[in-house]
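queue> pop job 88
queue> type: inverse folding (structure -> sequence)
queue> payload:
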């Protein structure tokens, strides 16, 4: 049975999608069976996995509205070695349509219950908001991975996310926990980043992943080739860090079982 993780942070541009596709590719290289669920109508995780969102006939939208199963709606990223439940602009409408429906926050959870046997890991790329879509992600997951840049305001945003996760844990999903905070786009030469990193460790202890993802231009270039950085340039520092992170995640779930 798959372990299911949301990659979430209500801020935009913090590295959620980069973390999702590169962790997925890293895990695939370690022989894990992985499904990426793109819950962002921008479809960046879909495109970044080499799947053209404009050509998809079925997406996560159909799964949320229960007109397709995950097995029917998924696509395969051959080069990256994992499956993708894709998204495109159509998903933006789901937000409104779901409000009318029963069990609106548990639609993805229901679909994943069926698909989980086919995978070791499900990674859900969340949009930059605490919306109905993100709620569907958080209700489905065993845990949350929070990518964050070590900047001053990062800590402030974290408090809101931690409170939301606590509420969902109490009311909707008793499994949900923060698995860890992942320091991304890290530049050790910047004193402030080092200081924020130290504060994070002092405050959150072992909830901070050991692996640190450096700022690395190859990770930023990879999406325009429809590839995760791990596949695009395996020898780059960024790719190597994500493979290390995949190893760290495999170890973490052993302690979760
Ligand atoms: P989000 O999904 O949270 O909005 P993205 O993963 O799309 O964030 O990242 C935002 C931007 O930063 C993208 O252009 C991405 O290529 C770039 N980026 C992400 N991580 C790194 C990194 N470690 N080094 C360099 N650029 C990065
Ligand atoms: Mg994104």
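queue> result:
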């Amino acid at each position: 049975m798959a372990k299911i993780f949301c990659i979430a942070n209500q801020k935009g541009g913090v590295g959620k999608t980069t973390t999702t596709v590169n962790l997925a590719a890293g895990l695939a290289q370690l022989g894990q069976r992985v499904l990426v669920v793109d819950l962002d109508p921008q479809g960046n995780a879909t495109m970044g996995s080499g799947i053209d969102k404009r050509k998809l006939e079925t997406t996560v939208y159909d799964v949320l509205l229960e007109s397709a199963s995950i097995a029917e709606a998924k696509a395969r990223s051959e080069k990256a070695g994992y499956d993708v439940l894709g998204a495109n602009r159509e998903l933006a409408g789901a937000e409104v349509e779901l409000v009318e429906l029963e069990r609106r926050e548990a639609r993805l959870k229901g679909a994943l219950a069926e698909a989980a046997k086919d995978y070791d890991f499900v990674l859900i790329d969340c949009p930059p908001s605490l919306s109905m879509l993100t709620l569907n992600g958080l209700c489905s997951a065993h845990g949350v991975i929070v990518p964050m840049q070590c900047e001053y305001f990062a800590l402030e945003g974290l408090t809101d996310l931690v409170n939301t996760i606590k509420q969902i844990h109490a009311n909707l999903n008793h499994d949900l926990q923060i698995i860890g905070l992942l320091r991304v786009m890290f530049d050790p030469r910047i004193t402030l980043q080092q200081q924020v990193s130290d504060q994070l460790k002092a405050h959150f202890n072992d909830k901070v992943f050991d692996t640190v993802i450096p700022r690395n231009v190859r990770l930023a270039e990879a999406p325009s080739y429809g590839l995760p950085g791990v596949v695009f340039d395996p020898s780059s520092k960024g790719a190597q860090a994500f493979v290390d992170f995949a190893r760290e995640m495999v170890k973490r779930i052993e302690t979760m079982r």
